[in-house]
Amino acid sequence: MKRKVLIIEDEAVTANILKGFLQQHHYDAYVATCPELARTLLGRHRFDVVISDINLGKGINGIDFVKQLIKGIIPVVFLTSYSDSETLKKAELSQPYAYLTKPFNDDQLLLTLNMAIVNSKKRFIHYQNNTINKHRVELTNREIEIVRLIAQGDTTDKIANTLHISPQTVGTHRKNIMYKTNANNVIELVSLAVEMNWI
């Protein structure tokens, strides 16, 4: 399945060159040459990653657009000719996954997009389960210990040996942990644990 990327770039020629390049590398690329079109496309499609220029014209820049509309839900890579420290500091406030300056290296762009998507899925996978409310999740110290060992890939028996408790007790703790967090699997649990700073 192709990954979907939204290119927000006010220069149509640049945007279409980038679109063609990404399509050659198995991305399903969409172009928005203005914020209005970007809003429409974001409402119609579920994108894996967004590439945004900083200078979008029409009274809004890419940094403000990302902060207002994308809000950390989709990983963003800024691709721009701006490299001054003031712009970089502003860009950091929108928490992009990367910041590449033009002219960019093709291999570097592909690697950056791939890493942005992979890291985003690790970070946000538990958001896919809307019933998880991280502000209401409370684990005991023992449960957090077990979560940390689970995150290391330890089996129930190994956790039991490490904590000097029975495998049955570990199994009970694991059930309680999954119930409290409402995680469907270990991947969701570990993702939530990272977000909650348990590990």
Write up this protein.
This protein has 199 residues and is of the alpha/beta class. The protein has two domains: 3-127, 3-Layer(aba) Sandwich (Rossmann fold), CATH 3.40.50; 134-195, Orthogonal Bundle (Arc Repressor Mutant, subunit A). It has helices at residues 12-24, 35-44, 62-70, 85-93, 106-124, 141-151, 156-163, 167-181, 186-195; strands at 3-8, 27-32, 49-52, 76-80, 98-101. Strands 2-1-3-4-5 form a five-stranded parallel β-sheet, sandwiched between helices. Strand 4, helix 4 and strand 5 (98-101) form a beta-alpha-beta unit. Helix 6 (141-151) crosses helix 8 (167-181) and helix 7 packs across helix 8. The longest helix has 19 residues, at 106-124. It is elongated. The mean pLDDT is 81.
Q: TL;DR of this structure?
A:
It comes from Zhouia spongiae. This protein is α/β, with parallel strands linked by helices and 199 residues long.
Largest sheet: 5 strands, parallel
Task: Please report the first level of CATH classification, the CATH class of the largest domain.
Answer: Alpha Beta
DSSP helix count?
Answer: 9
Strand adjacency order, main sheet: 2-1-3-4-5
Summed over residues and divided by their number, the pLDDT gives a mean of 81
Outline, from the CA principal axes?
elongated
> What structural class is derived from the secondary structure elements?
alpha/beta
The overall number of domains is: 2
Q: How many DSSP E strands?
A: 5
> What is the architecture of the largest domain at the second tier of CATH?
3-Layer(aba) Sandwich
Helix content: 40-55%
What is the CATH superfamily label of the largest domain? Response regulator
Poorly predicted runs are none
| Amount of beta strand | 5-15%
How much is the radius of gyration in Å? 21 Å
CATH topology of the largest domain: Rossmann fold
Q: Distance between the terminal alpha carbons, to the nearest Å?
A: 32 Å
Element-level helix/strand string: EHEHEHEHEHHHHH
